[in-house]
Write a structure and sequence with these properties.
By secondary structure, the chain is of the alpha/beta class. The chain has two domains: 5-26 and 96-104 and 199-489, TIM Barrel, CATH 3.20.20; 108-192, no CATH class. The chain has helices spanning 5-9, 29-41, 44-47, 65-79, 83-90, 109-118, 153-164, 182-192, 200-213, 228-247, 268-282, 301-324, 346-349, 352-358, 377-386, 395-402, 411-416, 428-431, 435-446, 450-462, 468-490; strands spanning 97-101, 122-124, 129-131, 139-140, 218-221, 255-263, 289-295, 332-336, 362-367, 390-393, 421-423. A four-stranded parallel sheet has the order 1-5-6-7. It binds zinc ion. The site of zinc ion (ZN) has 7 residues, from loops.
Length: 494
């Protein structure tokens, strides 16, 4: 989850529906299907040259698909005992999609500090935020972050890094080094950085480079551009990064769409105008907006007070879209149930998620942490499974903000009842995580095997807001990517 500060700093802008999936840079669907057919006729090993492990005479013949899978699955289990072995395995594993990613929370703190310094901002140490004005109390000046000859640079830098990241938050205690709860430490980030101008293109370039490097094929990003030419500029940047990767022998493919965000802590009038704005943009061609979400803490007093009215507005907007655009009604993927008994009353926990599907018309749930408390939990799980209403689970985010460790995590309840779960990064800059780290955490916390992780990757496509035709293309490419990865990884087994 995130605070929605980006949207507060600038008017909510929106977007459109993706009308087609641009062709992957490195392969065509027809080529994919032919390759899969050929591979299935012979064997994966017959399709590619697989280096043979030294001293293994029994492997002198090409391995079959089944014994290759068995070796990979077994080796993956061995890797789970060591974090770095696990990361090494997962780093280049195809991961499907990241559907829960806020670019405004994805920027590295190092870049935020550099930008703040370049923009001449002061750091208000008492109020833990950057400021254009000289603070009345103790502060760090812009030069304190840039001149390595100054003795205070390390202290200034370290102090601000601690504020802009969750690195000092003890997940189990749910407190930072100063005793603040993780929830408050996290949301302070957006107040702390509100005065810093962080270019949106910079946020997206970072995410594009990470996606290409970590083998993520599809991103649904919770940010919006106002003009099609801005979206086109990002597409050109993406193609440039993909071309660079291909030159280095790391050819990959990537699609990007956007989700318009409403902020639940603003006044009801502002919320309504945001919803109208998002609706208009959803139907504007060229902005690639595929859905609408609601952001900001659900336990905020305004969010609690206005929740019913906000859901009524969403319900009305959805019904209107069904009348005006029956072939393409509004689609909502809502942050919901990101709550615990510590920060919200039982009356909210026990109704929030069912209501999100009923009045919120959610086709996907973000977080859904409080699922176990729902009054109709088993009926709700069955409905989500049958209607393919998935959930994005952000493990590192949950741990830092909600004390959502392996015992408290919602993951197993959804997973065990067949609700499609996809892993997300949430605010990866603040959380100091990425999708590879989330996969590693899931494998270790819930004792998942390699085949389980592949299913999580497939879920990322299945519960995305792509059209069914687009999903089919992405899923076909994902299977081919798995085959290539497995040919590669089996050759690395020592
Ligand atoms: Zn989020």
């Amino acid at each position: 989850m995130r605070r929605g500060a980006e949207e507060e700093r600038e008017p909510l802008r929106s977007g459109l529906r993706a009308t087609s999936v641009p062709r992957p840079a490195v392969r065509s669907l027809a080529g994919t299907l032919v390759a899969l057919l050929i591979c299935s006729m012979f064997s994966l090993a017959a399709c590619q040259t697989v280096p043979q492990p030294a001293g293994s005479s029994s492997e002198s013949a090409a391995p079959t698909v089944s014994n290759q899978s068995a070796r990979i699955n077994s080796w993956f289990e061995d890797c789970k005992s060591s974090e770095q072995e696990l990361i090494a395995f997962l780093h280049k594993m195809p991961k499907g999609a990241d559907l829960h990613n806020h670019p405004s929370g994805a920027v590295d703190a190092e870049d935020v500090i550099r930008l703040a310094s370049e923009q001449g901002l002061y750091y208000d140490r008492e109020n833990r935020r950057f400021s254009a004005e000289v603070p009345e109390g103790p502060y760090w000046s812009p030069a304190d972050f840039t001149d390595p000859t100054q003795t205070q640079i390390n202290q200034a830098y370290s102090e601000v890094m601690n504020v802009l990241t969750m690195r000092t938050v003890d997940g189990e205690a749910n407190r930072d080094g100063d005793g603040r709860i993780g929830h408050d430490h996290f949301f302070n980030y957006f107040t702390a950085t509100a005065a810093v101008n962080i270019p949106k293109d910079m946020m997206l370039e970072k995410l594009i480079r990470e996606a290409v490097s970590q083998r993520i094929g599809y991103l649904e990003l919770m940010t919006t551009y106002t003009a099609p030419e801005d979206v086109q500029r990002v597409e050109e940047l993406k193609e440039k990064v993909l071309a660079e990767a291909a030159l280095e022998g790391e050819a990959w493919h990537l699609e990007i769409n956007y989700i318009a965000s409403l902020v639940r802590t603003l006044s009801l009038e502002e919320f309504e105008s945001q919803l109208a704005w998002a609706t208009e943009r959803y139907y504007t061609p060229g902005l690639n907006i595929v859905g609408i979400t609601i952001l900001a803490p659900e336990d905020n007093p305004i969010a609690l007070r206005d929740y019913d009215a906000q859901m009524d507005l969403i319900n009305a907007a959805y019904e209107k879209s069904m009348t005006e655009h029956p072939e393409n009604p509004l689609r909502f993927t809502l942050h919901a149930g990101e709550l615990t008994l510590e920060n919200a009353p039982y009356s909210v926990l026990s109704t929030r998620l069912s209501d999100t599907l009923d009045r919120g018309h959610a086709v996907r749930v973000d977080h859904g942490t409080a699922i176990g408390w729902d009054n109709k939990v088993y009926e709700l799980l069955a409905r989500m499974r049958e209607e393919n209403v998935g959930v994005t689970v952000c493990l590192t985010s949950n741990m830092g903000i909600l004390d959502g460790d392996d015992f408290h995590s919602q993951f197993t309840l959804y997973h065990d009842y067949g609700v499609p779960v996809s892993l997300g990064t949430d605010d990866e800059g603040v959380e100091r995580t990425n999708l590879t780290a989330e996969y590693a955490k899931a494998a270790q916390w819930f004792d998942l095997g390699y085949e389980d992780l592949k299913e999580l990757a497939r879920n990322g496509i299945r519960i995305s807001l792509l059209s069914q035709e687009e999903k089919d293309i992405q899923l076909t490419m994902l299977e081919e990517d798995f085959a290539s990865f497995e040919e590669y990884i089996v050759a690395q087994i020592p």
